[in-house]
Write a structure and sequence with these properties.
The protein is of the alpha+beta class. The protein has one domain: Alpha-Beta Plaits (2-Layer Sandwich), CATH 3.30.70. 34% of the residues lie in helices and 24% in strands. A 3-stranded antiparallel sheet has the order 1-3-2, with helices on one face. Strand 2 and strand 3 form a beta hairpin. The chain starts with 8 loop residues before the first strand and ends in a 9-residue tail after the last helix.
Length: 90
């Protein structure tokens, strides 16, 4: 298990792609849990995974948030881009 350089944060979840990790981190931040993403090199230093770190003192809140229904694709797109989906047909 990797250790973040910031002792106030703990490893919360890992993802195989940066985009998914950034979206997840944005979701936590939107819900009031400070978080950030760091890449972690695997094995031969070619492959990597992306680790989301959450503030230790709010990790319980992050666990509660993630135990609820997952965000929809539209919600993740909004969190990642800040753009609302356009309404079709108008």
């Amino acid at each position: 298990m990797a250790v973040s350089l910031d002792p106030d944060y703990e490893e919360f979840r890992t993802f195989p792609h940066r985009g998914a990790a950034e979206s997840f981190s944005s979701w936590l931040q939107f819900e009031g849990v400070p978080s950030f993403v760091e890449p972690r090199t695997l094995g031969n230093a070619v492959e990597a995974e992306f680790v989301v770190y959450a503030l230790k003192k709010l990790a319980h809140r992050a666990r509660w948030i993630t135990s609820q229904l997952p965000p929809t694709d539209a919600e993740l797109d909004y969190l990642a881009t800040g753009k609302l989906p356009t309404e079709e047909g108008k």
